[in-house]
Specification:
The complex is a heterodimer of chains A (856) and B (141). Chain A has 856 residues and is mainly beta. Chain A has 6 helices and 49 strands. The relative contact order of chain A is 0.11. Classes of the chains: A mainly beta (856), B mainly beta (141). Chains A and B meet through strand 26 and strand 49 of A and strand 6 of B.
Chain lengths: 856, 141
């Protein structure tokens, strides 16, 4: 079944009040239909009282049936039509009420058209029409090309979330099914037009098989935490279905199944996992969405709290569902701590895998976050959604009382291993740290972070200029025979000046000026950054190791000049961004660390300006560290974080002085825009001690610190200790069974409250002080206990209450016999202090305040 | 030698006309679970299989019976099953009168046999108050 046109109710600009006739152009279909195939249309109207002869939706070539409901003065009308597609360019549907097209009072709510391909489960859509609890929608499809018979659906809002699908086809082959799935109206109420509106999710499709095809069905519990303390209860079920060979499911496709006595009412939705064939029969295995949760490893994310448990789960599921359309869930309950009425809150969500090679599954994340909320059961509904069933003490759902007639066989066991009479609860959940590094950045003038980085000189000397090496004597630091300059004319377009360890310089050697200096590290020799370069002017005579000021002038343009007052004239001199490239002003965002949750209204920024001098003659000088710090308010405005003055290095008197760094920052929601300006003094070579060829390097390192969500640095502990004896019978219990301690950690929920933790510890002792009472019962037809009841409390015969922990279902049809079995496991939830010594299932039970001791 | 009255079978769900079967050779109660009627006829004159058809639940292999803890007998059977009341009487041949019996349940024909000496049918009435059908629905609930 393929959707070829869909105009939902809120397709604004397309549908609207007063519209009674509507044309669906074939050219706008989502997918072009195939000539000869059957099309099915659902057209929904909302209007006023029909009366008289009723209403119909008419379109040439389409036949079908319609139904309507009246609630007060509102009428919801639904038509189901079919035709055979023969290449029509468009279809026009017109509403007809009492013989005429109404002029007002009616609204076309939705129109959906599908092409029936005869192979898929179906398509779901939403319709709002006024209706009433228990209303019937009964429709005939006389014109479908497949053998259909009668189709009928019913929805019952009173059975929230439960969809009922009737397949009453007289033909069992490929009956066409429509089911009406009532949504939780409260959730969608905001979208309703009026209080009378109900949302119907219509599932329409061809059932994949009929009950007669079923040979074997086993639904069994998978590895789970059912009954285990300190863990979420994960009702993960697997299915094995053996059918006759004409039943073909696609692996991965969603399917629903019901038990033998009501097979067309979904008890479980599953995804087909595998297919095998044996003796002519096909066996499919299936898994629910809980199994997928156990397998899928979601992407990292964070979110700022605070969240209650419900809000946190809603947020997490919403994140996950963005990329996983199969993940849907029922309205979630609030999460309370066992033994406490407070609503704990998560400071934030930090779903970040610490070890990228061992990513947590969704279930493990849920475990981390929600194991503190004991007694909540995660189950998969028959509609394929995740549902969280609250523990009995938080579950307002009316209890179903089971009678002896609901059971075939029972066995009851007592499990002393679960006894706990001392408990320790620890919490080291997520908390906001005080001074975590949340943003870091660094930038430097070279592709290196200190001396030894590339020296890239760009001598802007007029080519053709000649340098005459003259006598170097007198006070010049020149070690004759040791330091030499050698001009090495290059063959590839440039030449080099090299310092040679030995050798002599011939007097009056002529050096061409078209040259460059080789980088010590060739591989990082990228022209970039804040290289100060000297401009050699008017060099008729180049005097190595001792250029005379009159011969050699270094001009630090474009550096800014120092004013007479010692300040700096006009900014900016040089801007640099974190790529190291020289820029005029190009702010680059300084991103917040991945998955960082920031709290507070400022970031404290510290930085270090490291500068050094790479000098040809004397080698590297420095580095020198010049720290600074500032505060950046998170107000999206640019702020001057600080100014760092530093003296550029130099052992001699030509070094630049009075260097200065300005640092501006601007918060941008998810990072910081940073702008730095570096000023250096105008400086000329003053003495003949240097080569005049040097590079000044600057490296700026920044750290932004803020309050960040992370693991709490402190562990809080609450105990119900050996010295605590206020629970009746706990002393005797310890005497009988010895000290049995429950240790529990609250996972990622931070409870920085020793007192509350102690209360939780007490509640755990209260819950587990007595042996667990487990009732394993074979359920009798018609099976009033279903898969969706897992996690719910029942009233058992004799008045005791028991939580349904698990179910196992087996059904076989063999040549000689058929069999069906449904076995439920209940955990008695009676007052744990009840005297459980004199109970029997069918006889007289006596209960009272008390506690269990061996031998009673 | 004990004798029986003919067995009268009345379909009640779905309702149908009462059928009268010949006098059984023997009637055996299995507690409250089932009643087995054995018909043996060395000179077959009645087509018992055809006579039984409107009241028979088939196939016999698909019938599952059970009893709840409340001692309610139930059965699960294939669609088409018929819930019947069976009435018969034990006759004391020397003027002792008739001891009537009645039971409700599903009639099944698990075995029948024909050989050179006789034709023998074993008709079992699975006693139950309610019948659930494989694939949905129920009788007598």
């Amino acid at each position: 079944m393929i959707s070829i046109a869909s105009y939902p109710r809120f397709a604004t600009g397309v549908l609207g009040p007063g519209q009674t006739s509507f044309t669906v152009p074939v050219g706008l279909f989502d997918e072009s239909p195939t000539p000869g195939f059957t099309l099915v249309a659902i057209v929904a109207y909302k209007g006023t009282t029909v009366g008289g002869e009723g209403w119909s939706v008419e379109s040439p070539g389409w036949t079908g049936d319609q139904t309507w409901h009246q609630v007060g003065s509102a009428v919801g009308a639904l038509a189901l039509l079919t035709t055979r597609y023969n290449g029509e360019p468009e279809y026009t549907f017109t509403l007809n009420v009492n013989g005429v097209e109404p002029s007002a009072g009616w609204t076309l709510e939705a129109i959906h058209i599908w092409e029936v391909m005869g192979e898929t489960l179906g398509i779901e859509t939403d319709l709002w029409i006024p209706s009433e609890t228990g209303s019937f929608l009964e429709v005939n499809f006389p014109n479908l090309s497949i053998d259909t018979g009668q189709i009928r659906g019913v929805y019952q809002p009173s059975r929230a979330g439960l969809g009922i699908s009737y397949d009453l086809g007289t033909s069992v082959l490929d009956p066409f099914v429509i089911s009406f799935l009532e949504q939780n109206t409260d959730d969608y109420r905001a979208n309703a037009n009026s209080a009378d509106d109900y949302l119907l999710a219509i599932q329409i499709g061809i059932p994949f098989y009929t009950y007669q095809d079923r040979v074997r069905l086993v639904i069994s519990k998978q590895a789970s935490n059912i009954g285990r303390s300190g863990a979420i209860q994960f009702a993960d079920y697997a299915l094995s279905l053996t059918v006759t060979p004409q039943v073909r499911f696609e692996v991965g496709s969603p399917q629903v199944i019901g038990h033998a006595l009501d097979p067309y009412t979904p008890a479980l939705q599953y995804y087909v996992k595998s297919l095998s064939e044996e003796e002519g029969l096909l066996t499919y295995t299936g898994e629910t969405l809980l199994a997928r949760l156990s397998r899928e490893q979601p992407e990292d994310f964070t979110a700022m709290g605070p969240f209650t448990g419900r809000e946190a789960l809603e947020y997490i599921l919403t994140q996950w569902a963005a990329k996983r359309p199969w993940l849907a869930w029922d309205p979630l309950p609030e999460f309370y701590l066992s033994g406490d009425t407070a609503l704990p809150r998560f400071p934030g969500l930090l779903l970040i895998n610490e070890d990228a090679s061992k990513r947590k599954t969704m279930r493990e994340w849920l475990e981390q976050y929600f194991r503190v909320f004991e007694g909540y059961t995660f189950q998969a509904t028959a509609a394929g959604k995740l549902r969280v069933v609250p523990p009995p003490w938080a579950d307002p759902t009316p209890r179903v009382a089971l009678t002896l007639n609901d059971f075939i066989q029972v066995a009851e066991a007592r499990d002393s291993d679960s006894i706990r009479n001392v408990a320790t609860v620890t919490s080291q959940g997520l908390a906001f740290g005080d001074s975590d590094i949340v943003v870091t950045n660094e930038f430097y003038t070279y592709p290196g972070t200190g001396p030894g980085g590339a020296i890239v000189m760009n001598h802007d000397v007029t080519p053709g200029t000649t340098i005459t090496v003259t006598d170097v004597s007198g006070a010049i630091v020149y070690r004759a025979g040791v330091d030499y300059l050698f001009y090495n004319p290059g063959s590839s377009g440039h030449s080099e000046i090299q310092r040679l360890p030995t050798g002599g310089i011939g007097p009056s050697a002529t050096i061409a000026v078209s040259y460059r200096y080789p980088a010590p590290l060739e591989e990082v020799m990228v022209p970039s950054g804040f290289a100060l370069w000297g401009r050699i002017q008017n060099l008729n005579n180049f005097v190595p190791w001792g250029p005379k000021p009159t011969d050699l002038t270094l001009d630090y343009k474009p550096l800014g000049p120092i004013t007479a007052a010692g300040g700096y004239a006009q900014p900016p001199i040089l801007d640099m961004n974190n790529t190291g490239a020289l820029v005029t002003y190009a702010p680059t965002k300084w991103p917040l660390h991945d998955n960082t949750l920031l709290i507070g209204n400022e970031i404290r920024v510290t930085w270090n300006v490291r500068d050094w001098l790479s000098q040809w003659q004397t080698g590297d000088i420095g580095p020198y560290n010049n720290p600074g710090q500032g505060v950046l308010p998170l107000d999206n405005k640019e702020h001057l974080l600080g100014i760092t003055n530093f003296t550029a290095p130099g052992t001699d008197n030509f070094s630049p002085q009075q260097a200065k760094l300005w640092l501006w920052g601007q918060w941008a929601g998810d990072g910081v825009f940073l702008r730095a300006q570096v000023w250096l003094a105008d400086q000329k070579i003053a003495a003949p001690f240097a080569t005049g060829l040097w590079v000044h390097g600057i490296w700026v390192q920044l750290n932004g610190r803020g309050r960040k969500l992370g693991r709490s640095s402190r562990t809080y502990i609450g105990r119900y200790a050996e010295s605590d004896t206020d629970i009746p019978g706990v002393t005797e219990n310890r005497a009988t069974f010895g000290i049995r301690e429950e240790t529990f950690d609250t996972g990622l929920l931070s409870i920085p409250d020793d007192v509350l933790l102690a209360r939780i510890a007490r509640s755990k002792v209260l819950e587990r002080m007595n042996p667990a009472q487990i009732v394993v019962a074979q359920i009798a037809p018609p099976f009033r206990v279903g898969m969706e009841d897992i996690g719910r409390e029942f009233i058992l015969p004799g008045g005791r209450r028991g939580l349904l922990e698990s179910l196992d279902y087996t059904e076989t049809h063999e040549a000689g016999s058929s069999a069906v079995s449904l076995v439920g496991r209940f955990r008695i939830t009676e007052n744990p202090l009840a005297n459980q010594g004199n109970s029997s299932w069918t006889g007289v039970s006596t209960y009272g305040e008390g506690y269990y001791t061996e031998g009673l | 030698m004990s004798q029986y009255t003919p067995v009268v079978v009345t379909p009640i769900a779905p309702a149908g006309a009462a059928l009268t079967l010949p006098m059984p050779e023997s009637v055996e109660w299995q507690g409250s679970t089932s009643v087995t009627f054995t018909f043996a006829d060395p000179w077959p004159t009645t087509d018992l299989r055809s006579a039984l058809a409107p009241a028979l639940s088939v196939p016999a292999e698909k019938i599952v019976t059970g009893r709840t803890l409340a001692n309610i007998q139930y059965a699960i059977a294939a669609p088409g099953a018929v819930l019947v009341d069976a009435n018969w009487g034990e006759v004391e041949p020397f003027g002792g009168g008739v001891l009537p019996h009645t039971a409700r349940g599903l009639l099944a024909l698990p075995t029948s046999m024909y050989d050179r000496s006789t034709r023998r049918f074993t008709v079992v009435l699975y006693v139950c108050a309610v019948v659930y059908l494989w694939g949905g629905g129920s009788l007598g609930a």
